[in-house]
Write a structure and sequence with these properties.
Layout lengths: L7 E7 L3 E8 L2 E5 L5 H10 L2 E6 L5 H4 L2 H7 L3 E5 L9 E3 L4 E4 L4 E7 L8 E5 L2 E5 L2 E2 L2 E2 L7 H12 L6 E4 L4 H11 L4 H15 L7 E2 H7 L8 H11 L6 H14 L2
Parallel strand pairs: 3-4, 4-5, 5-6, 10-13
Antiparallel strand pairs: 1-2, 2-3, 7-8, 8-9, 9-10, 11-12, 13-14
The structure holds zinc ion (ZN) and fe (iii) ion.
């Protein structure tokens, strides 16, 4: 879906640990999941940008709470999932819709990735995936509305993207996620290496997001549920014998839930 190689993507910090993604090109700006208005409006003023669009992945307040106030500051188009009740969506979209934002020469494909919420979507374009709270760096969102099977299928959709895809998720959860990943795979050196790198970044208050999909495939347990080490660890630690792929996946999520 590549149309523009010259975009700049920057995290705008919001609430406790949310990232609002700022996509910029030619002085135009697209923001993804504005859970708060104030930091977005400050960013627009500071960098003298023209807001061209808002993209929303799902209805949760920490991803939508700033929309109304941003629109009061600057009227713009708002894309979001068709079947979630989100105020101020002007352009409802669903799976495989193509979004074009000519001001930035941007094109995104909408991917339905349900599980965290029932109509959660991602925006995929220019080698970037904006995936809200479905896949996290080194982890995965909670299954609030959908089923484990839906979330599993959403993981497979993300896995099928090119290995070089940049993963832009909605929260800074990498360190906690990697601690769980180390619990699942204590001998996976890639996870240990990533944990040390993430620790250094966080010490300097730098974001660990985005990550490259190939890194996720090597270290994110929720993308590794077909790996024997992960399955054996699950059997050993949870004292269960999962019957199929979905059961393995569901049990891994349940295990993560117990670690907080
Ligand atoms: Zn959420
Ligand atoms: Fe969230």
């Amino acid at each position: 879906m590549l149309t523009n190689n010259n975009i700049k993507v920057t995290p705008i910090k919001a609430l406790t640990d949310n990232y609002i993604w700022a996509i910029e090109s030619n002085n135009y700006l697209v923001v993804v999941d504005p859970g708060e208005a104030k930091p977005v409006i400050e960013y627009i003023k500071k960098h003298n940008l023209n807001l061209a669009a808002i993209l929303v992945t799902h209805h949760h307040y920490d991803h939508t709470g700033g929309i109304a106030e941003i629109l009061a500051f600057k009227e713009t188009k708002v894309w979001g999932p068709v079947n979630e009740s989100i105020p101020n969506i002007s352009n409802p979209v669903e799976n495989n819709d193509i979004i074009e934002i000519p001001l930035l020469d941007l094109k995104f494909q909408v991917l339905a990735i349900p599980g965290h919420t029932i109509d959660h979507i991602a925006y995929y374009g220019s080698s970037n995936l904006f995936c809200g709270d479905t896949l996290f760096t080194a982890g995965m969102g909670r299954i609030f509305e959908g089923t484990a099977e839906q979330m599993y299928n959403s993981m497979q959709i993300i896995k099928s993207l090119p290995n070089t895809t940049n993963i832009y998720c909605g929260h800074e959860y990498t360190l906690a996620n990697l601690k769980f990943a180390m619990l699942v795979e204590p001998h996976n050196l890639e996870i240990q290496k990533r944990y040390e790198e993430a620790k250094l970044l966080r010490k300097q208050n730098l974001p660990t997001v985005p990550a490259i999909l190939s890194t996720e495939l090597a270290t994110n347990p929720f993308l590794r549920t077909d790996n024997n080490t992960v399955i054996e660890s699950l059997v050993k630690n949870r004292k269960i014998i999962p019957q199929d792929k979905i059961a393995i996946f569901r049990e891994l999520r349940a295990w993560k839930d117990t670690t907080g």
